[in-house]
Every structure is written in structure tokens, then in C-alpha cells.
Amino acid sequence: MPEDTVAHQFNTMEQQREADTLGMWIFLATEVMFFGGLILCYTFARFSYPQAFEEASHRLYVGYGGPNTAILLCSSLTMAFAVQSAQLGRRRATVAFLLGTACLGLAFLVVKGFEYHTDYVEQLVPRWHFKWEGSEAPHAELFFWLYFTLTALHAIHVTIGIGLLLVMAVLAARRKISAENHMPAEITGLYWHFVDIVWVFLFPLLYLIGHRQ
Amino acid sequence: MNTTQINLIEPAGDEARENYLTEHTVRSWLLTTDHKRIGILYLLSILVFFAIAAVAAAMMRIELLTPNGHLVLPETYNKLFTIHGVLMVWFFLIPSIPSVLGNFVIPMMIGARDVAFPKLNLLSWYLFLVGGALAVYSVIIGGVDTGWTFYTPYSSTYSNSNVVTMIAGVFVAGFSSILTGLNFIVTIHKMRAPGMTWFRLPLFIWSLYSTSLILVLATPVLAITLLAISVERIWGVGIFDPDLGGDPVLFQHMFWFYSHPAVYVMILPGMGVISELVTCFSRKTIFGYYFIAFSSIAIAVVGFLVWGHHMFVSSQSIYAGLVFSVLSFIVAAPSAIKVFNWTATLYKGSISYDTPMLYALAFIGLFTIGGLTGLFLAALAVDVHLHDTYFVIAHFHYIMVGGMVTGFMGGLHYWWPKISGRMYPESLGRIAALVTFIGFNLTFFPQFLLGYLGQPRRYHSYPPEFQIFHVLSTAGASVLMIGYLMPLCYFVWSLWYGKKAPANPWEATGLEWKTASPPPCDNFEETPLVTHKPYQYKPEELREGAQHA
Amino acid sequence: MPFHLFPEDAAANGHQVDQIFWALAALSVFIMALVFLPLGYFAIRYRKGNPVDRTLKNFSTWKFEVTWTIIPLFIGLGIFAWAAEVYFHIETPPANALEVSVVGKQWMWKLQHEEGNREINEMHIPVGRAVKLTMTSQDVIHDFFVPAFRAKQDVVPGRYTTEWFTPTRTGRYRIFCAQYCGTSHAAMIGWVDVMEPADYQRWLLSTGQGETMAAAGGRLYTALGCSGCHGMSSKIHAPGLEGLYGRPVPLNDGHIVTADDQYIRDSILLPGSQIAVGYQNLMPSFKGHLSEEELMELISYIKSLGSKPAQEHQQ
Description:
The complex is a heterotrimer of chains A (about 210), B (about 550) and C (about 325). Chain A is mostly helical. Chain A is built from six helices and two strands; from the N terminus they run ααααββαα. Chain A has one domain: Four Helix Bundle (Hemerythrin (Met), subunit A), CATH 1.20.120. Chain A starts with 12 loop residues before the first helix and ends in a 6-residue tail after the last helix. Chain B has 16 helices and no strands. In chain B, helix 3 (about 75-110) runs antiparallel to helix 4 (about 120-140), helix 3 packs parallel to helix 6 and helix 7 packs parallel to helix 10 (about 290-300). Chain C has two domains: about 10-35 and about 65-210, Immunoglobulin-like (Sandwich); about 215-305, Orthogonal Bundle (Cytochrome Bc1 Complex, Chain D, domain 2), CATH 1.10.760.10. In chain C, the strands form three sheets. Chain C has a five-stranded mixed sheet, covered by helices on one side. A five-stranded mixed sheet of chain C has the order 4-10-9-6-7. Chain C has a two-stranded antiparallel sheet with strand order 11-12. Chain C is elongated and about 100 Å long. The interface between B and C is large, with 89 and 83 residues.
């Protein structure tokens, strides 16, 4: 969080900024291991049950996933512009791009919401509302468990990110983020790009298995 | 000697001198962001969990005195070894040196006022408490009988005990570990005093840095694994249970991918303490600083690559077994380097037998035995026979108790004057160290023989031909218990009646000794400046009076 | 059982395992001496106040470091290689071993000989002949451990694991479950009875069920309708099973797998998971209709159909 005064454990603002940035990088490393653990689970299962996974993947709609990927990629662009504006001290542009990124994030969540609804209607929700023809129902159900867990965890991270962006926008409006003190924007940018990168992995892994007719 | 620009604070029996302990209110403790207070909060918490786990162990050992003991029901016995493992691993050993001694000492050792994120530090402690409360709660409402390893599908489908509650406790405590590790890494990178280059850092810092790397990278995988068990258990989604379409061995891969590096979390900090003690009490610089520093990093890195050695008979491919076995032999090398280097440090030193040094010497001996017996388990054909027997139990207790707990005791005695401003009674300290050493060996050495004979783990009853070993082991455990109760008593006693400690009672090098005992809130009056390597001891000097810059 | 300090050695592999164990023990004593003796000596000789020469020449430590890194590493790798070789031998059952099927369940061992004889918590086998166990679990993971044979293998639900040994002495040797499996894990113990071959034959005859595993499997094969699709005169295009066992099977996704016990089991329980090339996913699953013992009997029957492929089925 931006401070005009240096926190008591630090000697200089420079030190505080460097510590905050390194802290965010390490936090992201733990997130990589967190998602990575799930993706490991997924990889193992996919190699074990390739046919079931391919069939299950075909039940996901690229019509939802594709646009969502585009939305998130655009949001990373607006985030980058927000950081650049902060570095250049352009207050209005910073606020605008931060809000724009938040809006795109919200759009992602809305699309995801519609998608989950569709999955529910089509009875693809493990244990609660699941129906699968064929002898590989348990493996298909495993795919959908992985799908919901991975995308829900990701959506939680997107939500937290939106919250962070709104806070940053307020702080930028109040001139707490400036050319001299643009680190908070940069650190938020790191987090948001990470969230985007996770989706860039999830989309092909979940939506694009095998050939489609 | 590190030259500093601080005035040395002489002991003057001055009660009014303000330090980090001065403020007494409950609020000042529960809302503290002072790393020193947080270290003490952790100390008190881990003692509670240790006590519960130790009582569980005592009950197990009494049950095992006779081949068909009836102290507890079989199901209760299974719950006892589960709670013993869960509490000892996650709520005592993993936080012990890092969260108690690390929190207290790291900022002072590097010349900082606090850690990088003090509020996050306090959050870590509260998360730890919540996790521990959940784990203990799971015991109160009936316990868990899966073992601390939670193997599936027993834990995810078949067990009728409170698995998810206990898992939730471990899950929450995992975040405490991650945040502590994150805090330490940033602190060590960014908050070193001027002149404190990487290779002027004390080796305790190197070992805690390596530990923190493991904590931040391995613990998230545990979180996912525990989440997966819970999902299977609650919603019946087949991840690990073959009846539901899952793979039970997948669990073992995911679990051990975290839990093997976790055992290095449970020894590296102890090794770091030993480097401090061996130099101070030999009055000699460490032999091979660079090798010890890099060996800590090597252990952390290679430690991520050996998890399959827990699975040689699990139906894992024999080629995977080959890879994991050779890497397990390789990971022994950096530990061996440390042992040889510590031994060589004593050469031409000036050795005193204060309590911390006794614990350090005990560590070197017991860790060597524990480490060598690890080679038996790394050897594929031999592990087929020894896997899941008492040999494994003896091996890891030699490392965790003979190693880590001994290191913790050594460090606690060493830094006690700094933490509390009081000296513990030295002769009682030495007696307790000796009692612990004897009790420990009597408890665990017979278990190597028991394992080779073939007695499996986690048995509440056993064939009568194994009884003599169990009797010896239980006798040893009684002695060991006394060895641990003694410090509990005299440390508490010393808070009121112990001799007041000077700033540097051991005449040790290291920035933490350049400030008062107990230290002021901000650790130092002025930021220190470091101009020398650590451990600039000279053995010929006699130990009298305080050191001067 | 009389008191032992060391386990009995009652199987052919045991000696090799013990050799490595004792070599490691000797190495450990050696390294302990290498550490403890100097440690003790230095601690005493260089104790504070003892007037001995403590002047240290300035020397670089790295020669020592490299030496005491490289030498233990080589010794360690040597032990690794030795143990790995013995391990490969332990994990590779010989052909023509006497086969016994094992099903572990909470909390007992159910065994069946090829001849059909069933046992609970006890295994009678002849001395001097390799015995191969094919094992699975009905519920959680167990482990079939015979300390006297230095043999151990996890018994995993959903898959088959194998273990083999050649007993060298008659006698009774303990079986332990060595993977925690719940409340009565400690009670899941039993005995291996190693007998003279003639006595073993007598035992087989006296406790026989009257039906070999393969025959029981053949009975199931008909009763469950397998012959309806897989039989020679069937109108359904299903793979022939004669000579299938042990042969490579090309699947429709391009992989080639071997038709071993696991393949047959998966084909019966999860037929859709691996479809042979040129065939459709038509086979129903028999999950829930067969016990583990029955599955093993079916596999035994299919094995008995020989290893020569029959003529092509009619379409």
C-alpha cells in the first residue's frame, strides 16, 4: 500500500519498494506451485484416461472460453498501459486504465457465470448435477471436477484482482500513486499478469483437447 | 570482530532499562508486530502442541510394553499415532526453529529492526493458531485414524474419523508456513545492514534461507493434495479411490512431493544452529564456510527430486525407483559435508562444554547415525525389506529428535539470555542434555533392530518375540521425558530467579550479541555497519570480561 | 517363536539383501568412527585451558572438502548400483514360477492356488521352487510382507502387483501387513508354511476344492455371457481371446499395450478405456458384478486359452 512515510522496519523508500516487489514475486511463485499442483493432477489424469478427457473437453464451449481468453489478454494490455501511465504521472489515464482493466475482469467473470450456468443445465456439475453416457463416467466426472476447481480458483483470483484494481484506482485518483510512487501499480500489474498467464494455460488444457469436428 | 558503531550496553542490573518485554498488556502481546514477541508467542504455542503429541507418544509406548496391551483400543492407538505425527510434524517441528528462533534472531543477526512484513508475521501466527485449533478440535470430537500420511483410499473413503477437520487444520497452518517463508526470504534479501554481504551472513541465515525456499515452493502442493482428499471425501469425486475411478498412487506422489522437502525443513534450521554453536564454543571460525552455505542450498534443491524413495514398493515403476535411489544417495553428500566441516572446526579450537555445546555435539553424533541409516533406506533392495518397519521410525526419529529437537534445545539455551535477559542454571542444563542423550538412544536404537527383524509400523500389538525391544524403548522414553521436562522447569524458573544476563554472555560474534539482553524494541540503537566475515574467533584468547570492538 | 536378534534367512534372495545390509552397517561404523573419534579427540585435547599448540597455518580448506565429498559420493553410488542390481532381480519374477493369487482386504489375506485351493491368512508352498504372487486389494492399500524372505510389495486396489521368492528352508514364517490399513492393521498377519514338495502335493490334494482357478473362470465366462460376444460363432465383432494373454494389442489411439493381467482386468471393468484397433466401444462393464477373486479366476481361464492366436472371427 502506498505510504508517504517509510514503514518503520525499513530505512528508505527504495528499500521498502524493493521488498514489496520481491514479496509479490515470491507470492506469485507460491501461486505457481499451487496451480501447478492441480495441473499436475490434471496431467496425470489426462495421460491415464485420454479418451474420457477428450470427450469431456468437447463438452466445454470454446464460444465461452475463447472470448474470455481475449478479454483477459486485453485486460493485460490495459493493465500495462495503467502501469505506464502511473510511471509517467498521468493521473487520469492511470485511473481510466485501472478501471478499464477492472471492467474487463468483471466481463470475464460475467461470461464465466453464464458458462457455469450452461454447464449446470447440461448436467456437467460433479456429484450435484452430473449425467454422463458411456462407461467412463467416473473419469469424465474427474475431468469436470478439475475443470470447476481450476476455473473457480482462477475466478477467485480474478475477483481479488478486481478488488485490488478498484483500490488502486481510488488511490490513484487521490494522487497517492504518482510518478515518484508508482510501485503499487506495478505490483498490482504483476499480480494481474499472473492471473492472465494462468488462464492462458488453463484454456488450452481444458477446452482444446484433441480434434474437434 | 565485526566492528560496529553501537555502544555496548553493559549489564548494570538496571531494572528500569526499557526493552521489548517491558510493556505488559495482553493487547501489546496479542497485537504485536515485533518479531521478538512473535517468536515468543510461537514458542508458547508449539509447546502446547508438543505436550499433546508427547502424551500421545507416552500412551503408545505404554501400550507397546506388552505384545497385546490393553491400555487403549486398537482404534484409539491408531488415533494416537496419527495425532502424534500430525502435531509433531506440522505444529511442532516445522515451526520450531524457523518461527521461534528464526523470528527472534534473523532480523538482529542481519542488523535489521524487524522482518520485511511485520503484520504478515503476526497473521502467520494467528493462522498457525487457527490451524492448530482445528487439528486439536478434530481430536476432541473423536480423533483421526489415518496416520499423518493420510494414504488413500483409506483416508478419502474408508476411514470413519474426522479427517476433513484435521486436514483443514493442516491446510490453514500451511499458509502460516508459506507466509513465514516469504517473509524470511524478503527480509534476508532486502534488509541486511550495510556491509552485510551474502558471504558475511552467519550460516544460520543461509540455512533458514534454504528452509524458506522449501516452505514457499513445497507447501502449496500440500494444500492442493489435502484439498483433493477433502473433495473426494465430501463429494465422492474419484481422484484417488479406484472404485470411484481414481488412482491411489497419485496421492502418494503428490503427498511426498511436499513431504520429502518438508523433512529438510525439519533439519536445515537445526544444522544452522549447530554452525553457530560449534564456532562459538570452539572459539574458532567455521571450517569451510562456503561449502556449508552452498550445501544448504543444495539440500533444498536436490531435496525436491527424491520423493519417490518413499514409494519403492508402492507399484511405482522400477526405473523410477532407480532415479529416486541414485538422487537419494546424492542428497546425502551435502549433509555429510556439514558433519565433516563441523568436526574439523573443533581442531585446534578452545572448547568449552556449556550446555549449548553439549547439544551441538549430541546433534553431530545423532544426526550422523540418522543420516547413515538413511542410506539403508535409499538402497533399493534393502528398502524392500525395511520399508514401513520400525527401522524407518528409528531413522527419522534420529534425524528429527536426535537432530532437529536437539538443535532446537541447543539454540534455545544459546539464545535464552538474549530472549529473556536471564541465564538458565548451567549445571542443570548439562545434566538435562546428558539425560536426553541417554534416554533418546535407549528409546530409538532398539527400533533399528526391531525393524530389521521385520516388525511393521503402526502396530498396536505384535508377536511376543519382539517384546524385549519394546521394553527397552519404553524405558528409554521415560528417561527422555525427564530430559525434556527439566528444561521446561528451569527455563520458567530462570525468568524470575535466573542470573541476569549480560549483552554477550558467550562472547560470541554476531550482531545479535552487540545489543542488550533483552534487546530494545528496535533491536539496535543505530544501524550497525559490518566490515568483517562472521565467526572471527581466536581460540587463544581467554574468556573473561566483555569483548570490545 | 524363539527370540532372534536378526531375522531368519529362508529365501534365495535373502542372502543378497543381507549382504548389502551388513556392508552398509560396516560402512556406517566406519564413517561413525571417522567422525566420532576425531570429534572426541578434538573435544578433549583442545578443551579450554588445556595448554596445547593451537597455532593454525593458513590453508585452504577446499582440498579437504572435495576429498570428503567425492569419496563418500563414489562409495554411495557403488552401494546404489549394487542394491539396484539386486532390486531388479527381486522385482523380476522368473517364468515358470508357481503362481498364487492374493486378495487383501480389511483385515485378512485371501489366497488361492492355481489348483483351486483357498486359504485365509496362510500360504502353503513347496520349498526350492520360485513362487510368484499376483495380488490386489478389495478396499484400501495393504502390503504383503514376509520378513524371512526379505520380500515386500504393496497390494493396491484397482491394480495387480506381483512379488516373488524362492524359499530355501522348510518352516513357518510370518506374514505381516506392512501398509497401514485401518483398525485391525496389526491383526492382518499370517503364516507361510514352506513344505517339502511331496508334502505340498499331499496338502494340495487333501484341501482341494475340486475345481481349478481356470475351470472356475471358464464357468464364469459362460455364466456371465462372455462367450456370447467373444465366442467363435458369435455375430458380434468382438476380439478373440484364444492366445491373447501376453500378446501385444494395438489400440485404436495408436498405442500398443501388452495383454497382461491388468489389461484383462481393465477390459472387463472399464472396457471403454482401451479399445482394440478395428473394434467398437460395445462391451458393457462388469463393474460391481465380479469379486476380485472371480476376476482372477477369469484371468486364469483366459491364460489357459493358450498363446497361439486362433483363426479370425467371422464378421
